[in-house]
UniProtKB/TrEMBL annotation:
It comes from Saccharopolyspora gloriosae. The chain crosses the membrane at residues 310-331. It comes from the Bacteria. Residues 262-307 are annotated as: Disordered. This is DUF11 domain-containing protein.
Amino acid sequence: MLRKQSILNRCAPRRAAARRSAVLSCCGLALLIPLLTSAYVPPHPGAPAPGEHVGEHESGWPIEHPSLSLRTEVAPAVARPGDPITQTAVVGNTGDTTLAGVVVTLDSGPCHEVLGHLRPGATETASCSGTAPAHGRVSARAVGMSHGGLPVVERATAEIAESPPEPEPPAPKRPSVALEILPARAGSVPVPVRNTSTVPLLGVEVTGEPPACRRTLGTLEPGRSVTYTCRAAPGETVRLAVSARSLAGEVTAADALVVPPLPPAPPAAEPSPPAERPPPAARPVPPPLDETRVELADSGGPRESPAQTAGFIAVLGVLVMMVSVGALSSATRAGR
């Protein structure tokens, strides 16, 4: 019994401390709620008194309206990519509360400027030296934070006009001359010589082949030209060169070559068709031979035809041959 009572006595202080902590926690939370909320709505006031304007005596927690203004400029306003420029930014606090930790970033450098605190209505200026970008635009960014912890961000841009390219330097005043040989006309070859520079040319002389095309022209003013003609045979090569000098003594020259074409050959005459040969003359037909019989002179005997006479002579020859052979055979036997 004594042990049970001692346990209850020990637990009683702990329960009382827990109750006191719970009460204090509830009271502290009730006091912190208005501080944690940024907009506290007060109870509806009664009707304003006569002569009192609404808003003169506001009750409740104040509401913040943080705001920033930002403007950026570039000097010079006309530049080419890579040229040095200076970017300037003007930051203003257009809200109704002080802004802390105001920082401006300019991308021409880039540069980061810390302006710190900025009161309502105040302005600050930041500048940065850099180079003009290729796209011709620079930007700026400003950030800050109100007393109640609300962040504020503002951005601005500026265009850079590209400057026109620098004009090319004028060409030096050097002497130059041009020579041309035009196609021949009726055996005459036109040869124009022109001063293509902006300075007078002295001692203009044309040399080459054929000798008939050589000339001494003397002085030739800027932009002026002289054309002369010379004779050249068809197919003869015309090779000319011109030389001149300026007042400063600089020498210039040019040459040209042309071969006048040969005149076209006359068209060949078409061959005439071969003349028809007359038909060969008919050979005369010899008259037919008459079979005449040769009659022997009167011999008093019977007359025979030539065929019979020939046969008789042949038989006689055979007989003579046989007789000769027989005589030879007899002589041979007798010699043995």
